[in-house]
Design brief:
Layout: H1 2-27, E1 30-35, E2 41-46, E3 52-63, E4 69-76, E5 85-91, E6 95-102, H2 109-115
Antiparallel strand pairs: 1-5, 2-3, 3-4, 5-6
């Protein structure tokens, strides 16, 4: 009975570890921060159905919590608010996978310093 429980526990731990590794590779990444200072570049996309969608493309310098910079590009479905701070998730494989607005007080100090130099 103990061997069965131990085997089952080992199986669950291995599957959980593989699942976490897959999730982190697909959706995780480095947190980077940007400050929106200008409007995005408007891009109209036509779907196969003929429906048109408007995206706004941004290309800018982002900073991680250590203050290291990296050029990033991402899109939004609306023009983002000027002087807004965003936290981006930069995946090694997929690039920027998500973004969310954050308050200036929530920025890491090194990133805040770099963003406010400009």
């Amino acid at each position: 009975m103990k061997k069965v429980l131990f085997g089952l526990l080992a199986f669950v731990v291995i599957i959980g570890g593989l699942g976490y590794g897959w999730y982190n590779t697909s959706y995780g990444g480095t947190e980077r921060y940007v400050k929106i200072t200008e409007d995005g570049r408007k891009k109209v996309i036509k779907a196969d159905s003929g429906e048109r969608f408007t995206d706004y493309e941004y290309e800018m310098t982002a900073y991680d919590k250590k203050g290291d910079e990296k050029e990033v590009s991402f899109t939004a479905q609306h023009n983002l608010r000027k002087n807004a701070y965003l936290k981006l998730i930069d995946n090694k494989v997929k690039g920027i996978t998500s973004w969310e607005e954050v308050q200036e007080k929530d920025l890491p100090s090194k990133a805040k310093e770099k963003l406010n130099q400009n």
